[in-house]
Design a protein that fits this description.
Blueprint lengths: L2 E5 L2 E4 L4 E8 L4 E10 L6 E6 L5 E3 L7 E6 L4 E6 L8 E10 L4 E5 L3 E6 L1
Parallel strand pairs: 2-11
Antiparallel strand pairs: 1-3, 3-8, 4-5, 4-9, 5-6, 7-8, 9-10, 9-11
């Protein structure tokens, strides 16, 4: 059974930093793209950042220059370093990964981790 387990969320003051981690476990043949999404109360889930196995990244305009996505392929882990946090970054953050098992390939989601930024 493949799982994505997130950690690192919490409460932080505006201007502060947090680092989210997400590790894949189970019988995994390979992991393609990985990413982070977030969903604020009353809003739709939105893309925050993505990263390819080779390390090519893409960040939403709202977080460019403040957030950085990275990954460790050997550890099957994706990270999101969040700096200069703002109250509008408050949301549940979900990791996402495109995972190949035997015999299928599908998209997996983590359970979500709450990030709250106080003003």
């Amino acid at each position: 059974q493949v799982q994505l387990v997130e950690s690192g969320g919490g409460l932080v003051q505006a201007g502060g930093s947090l680092r989210l981690s997400c590790t894949a476990s189970g019988i995994i043949f390979s992991i393609d793209g990985m990413g982070w999404y977030r969903q604020a109360p009353g809003k739709q889930r939105e893309l925050v950042a993505t990263i390819t196995p080779a390390g090519r990244t893409d960040h939403a305009d709202s977080v460019k220059g403040r957030f950085t996505i990275s990954r460790d392929n050997a550890k099957k882990t994706v990270y999101l370093q969040m700096n200069s946090l703002k109250p509008e970054d408050t949301a549940v953050y979900y990791c996402n990964a495109d995972i190949m098992t035997i015999p299928t390939r599908r998209e997996y989601w983590g359970q979500g981790t709450q990030v709250t930024v106080s003003s």
